[in-house]
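Thread: quick sanity check before group meeting

JM: Hey all, I'm pulling together slides for Thursday and realized we never actually wrote out the predicted structure for the chain we discussed last week. Dropping the sequence here so it's in one place. If anyone has concerns about the input, flag it before I start.
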Amino acid sequence: MASAAALAGARMTPLKDLGAYGAKRWILLAGFVLAAILEVLDTSIINPVLPTMAGNLGCTFSEIGWVSTSYILANVIVLPMTAWLAQRFGLKQYMLFSIATFIGASALCGIATSLNEMILFRLIQGASGAPLISMTQAGLAEVFPKREITLSQSIWALGITTAPALAPTLGGWITDNYAWPWIFYINIPMGLMAMWVIGTFYKGAGPTKGGSVDWLGIGLLTAGLGSIQYVLEEGQQNDWLADALIFKLAVLGVLSTTAFVLWQLSSRNRSPIVDLRVFKDRGLSGAAIVMFVAGFGLYGGLYLFPLFAQTVLGFTASKSGFFMLPPGIVLAFTMMFTGFMMQKKVPGRDLSMAGAVVMMISMWMLGHMTSQSNASDAQLALEISRAGIGLLMLSVIVAGVAGLKPSAIKQGSALLGLARQLGGSFGIAVLSTYVTRMTAFHRYDIASRMYSGNSLADDRLHMISGALTAKGFDSERAAAGARSILDGQVTQQAYTMAVDNAHILIGVMFALTIPCLMLMKRRAGGGDAAAAH
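JM (edit): ok, ran it. Output follows.
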């Protein structure tokens, strides 16, 4: 995908093998990439902007979190229905409608004057953006010949994987240099360009008429995934099942999701909203589990490190955002390398396993950071982790749909996207709770050793007290100040140990994906692509 030889080979492909699109397929690829980036960019570009937005909209930090939650909530609910909606309204028509609605919702987000307005517009934005990834991937399978499908999907995957990694840096820069509404306004020219390209050059499959609407399935899906997503987003700050609302929604989510799965597989359901039978393909089943873990690690890591950098390493918000830029560049180059290797017929399963091993190594490194670690230590570990994600996600995306029939690719792609999104939601929720509880555990363990008479504790107190006395504090204030400073150091050390534990947990999860990767057939990269086509 990234080599001159690969591009030259694409140009030398006989015109009769290029189908109805010819050279226009590369213009369409750019349009598909732009459309897919719209969705993933707005998932995380808003994170560094939330404190500023809370002040402008007159709400608390807890309330402003719903600006992110509403987007993900709508996204998760609509994602599984993408294939059904595209079939009912036509792939091209639904894609153009989704982009147009996303543009309109983005403009409304930029001019919102209250929290309620912002939440409503973000719901619309999330619902309209949800299908863009799976629909554009399905479009690639229609536009490109078999021999080029790996190349095209590599370029496409490069965009959707690097965008969320670079989004926090972009969001912070825009807010510092302009104003937060511009993080929404930049979607307008990107969306209009994507609409023009797709509307002009893409033919697309038309709608399929007939068939009843699975209203029961839609209701169960909305209640199930909506409840689960709310529990994941709000559970930590509301003490999980100890809160009555969280408990009720957790029960509703489990029961509704279980009923939804049974109804979709029932012979009585003539027009299921989600074709869960595609999971009979073992490659897709394994890929879905791996994508869940990849989302857990990617979005969980994006949540963990900025907090650690600002709390322990002393980074500012802007510095922690820009610190993520080099790892994002590493991710981009690794994606290009992965696509090139798949183009050279390296089996996607082998690349995925290599990515999982690299992720385990990087999580081991991040799991041994200390409060004395420097920026270069963290930088290297993050760059290695992004290399692992680059090896893993692209090969899984392509190999996961490789065994599906062309008519099932939209459904398979949507379910992989859902797995990634749910993995990210679970990752943030689980890691947030885990770090909080492990911090309390480590703090209790360390503090229990700081009793009077412990030579190490007494020496540290005397050292800090002496330093304060030298700055002009009297003995009483110096002693009180020393105890306060030592308490802060204990808390910082406990937090550092908890973050280390969280990174090790992510590494263990990637180790557990190895059996799932074994479910994928060991085809060459080009073979995967051909099958996907």
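AS: nice. The mean pLDDT is 79. The longest helix spans residues 409-447.
JM: adding both to the slides.
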